[in-house]
Each structure stands twice: as structure tokens, then as C-alpha cells.
Design goal:
The chain is mainly alpha-helical and 78 residues long. It is built from 5 helices and no strands.
Length: 78
Amino acid sequence: WPHPDSIEKLVRHSSGQFIYSSTVLKFISSSNHNPASQLEVMLGIWDTSDSSPLTDLDLLYQEIMSGVKDPQKTTKVL
């Protein structure tokens, strides 16, 4: 675990951006969730209609922020 195809997809969608890879690893390794489930979420958020390398990063952050349990507290931190 994970399957090599999953790793390849993550690498391809990172577009060479270390922040993307780092954020995905933190998301998957969250102690509050099942890592396999978190990986499946990451593998399902890509938009193949846009060729911009930042699109996948935007989708990654949108997915993470949509799962925030306390938006007001998060807004203060940001």
C-alpha cells in the first residue's frame, strides 16, 4: 500500500510542486481519518479539463477546506 499507480497519479498531479506532495501526505496521514480513505479522496479530486498545474493544487485545498469542522476557527488562523 499504496498501489504504484496511485503514487504515479499523485506525482503526475503534483506538477513538480513540493507543496502539493507535502500537503497530500499530511492529508493522508491525518490521525483523525483512515489513510486509505483519505488517499481515495485525493485520487478522486482532479479536473482533467484544465491543463494548468495550479488547478490540481486549488482542488486539493478546496477539498481540505470543505472538510474543516470549525470554519470560524480556521478563518482566524488563515
